[in-house]
Amino acid sequence: MKTVVCQSPGDLQLVERPLPRAAEGEVLLRVRRIGLCGTDMHIFRGTQPFLQYPRVMGHELSGEVVSAPAGSELAPGDQVYVMPYLSCGACVACRQGKSNCCTNIQVLGVHRDGGMAEYLALPERFVFKTDGISLDDAAMLEFLAIGAHAVRRGNVRPGHTVLVAGAGPIGIAAALFAQLQGGKVTILDAREDRLAFCRKALGVPHTVAVGAEDKARLSELTRGEFFDVVFDATGNAKAMERGLEFVAHGGTYVLVSIVLDRISFADPEFHKRETSLLGSRNATADDFRTVLAAMKAGQVPTGLMNTHRTTLADFVEVLPQWMDPAAGVIKAIVEV
């Protein structure tokens, strides 16, 4: 089968690999759509902290069932999506229902080879029916679920003022689901094209460009009180440190980004606000179901989000071009 392998940073190759065999309890999938994620770009650059090379990328997946275990609710031909966080089900996090931060987690395309291939075998419990949404939309469930999970972590409520720093796909997802929870959302980013997308596609009322006057503008929008909940989706350590300045007294700061660096805050600023500082990692099956329901209700503008597409055969040539900000990629989909 055709498989795209990142042999080392900057070295992406289309190779032939044997067709996988489904073990007991596993589903064999024909992969049909793969969403390109920021994680994949980090892998290509060599800046993903949890990874060893060579690696098959790809964790935003939809496809069709080729075979399923006896007695399964899945059957050949079913269209499905994948929850790519393969958790152990037994550790301290899993026992609390927090499989997204399992101590033994194996994330497809990061800790183990992912779905940038024609076929993939996976344990049945991580494969779910698409329930009527398209294969394209199903391949976008994962990144949106990360945003939905972050919003759930931040406990956004109607009337909350919400700041999302970083208008990439994860930030867009957080903004979308914060608005669906009744939050009054502002987005901060350095790229005007991303801010324009958020205004057009999401109807975000306030966007602020990073610059000398950004803090004054954020203060003006909140009458000097700043934001009840701040989400960082920048992937930049300095921005993550600075984001504390935008949290209201008594507010919550949710770090969705992950960076290789250490991050620190001035303790007096952190303490006087009685800030709730939260990490947000991956998503749970409930978060995927939240996104699926929102898609079926017409609340997710997936058609606008899917700005680029290519085939598996052409992906090796196209990826370096898409990594240029001038390409304007929001969400790219690879067809298999």
Description:
By secondary structure, the protein is α/β, with parallel strands linked by helices. It folds into two domains: 2-140 and 300-335, Medium-chain alcohol dehydrogenases, catalytic domain (Quinone Oxidoreductase, Chain A, domain 1), CATH 3.90.180; 146-279, Rossmann fold (3-Layer(aba) Sandwich), CATH 3.40.50. Helix content is 29%, strand content 28%. It is built from twelve helices and 17 strands. It has helices spanning 38-45, 92-95, 135-138, 141-154, 169-180, 192-202, 214-221, 237-242, 267-272, 285-296, 302-305, 315-322, and strands at residues 2-8, 11-16, 26-36, 60-67, 79-82, 85-86, 106-107, 119-123, 127-129, 161-165, 184-189, 206-209, 227-232, 247-255, 276-279, 306-311, 331-335. Strands 3, 4, 5, 8, 9, 16 and 17 form a seven-stranded mixed beta sheet that branches. Helix 4 crosses helix 5 and helix 4 (141-154) packs across helix 10 (285-296). It is globular. The protein starts with a strand and ends with a strand.
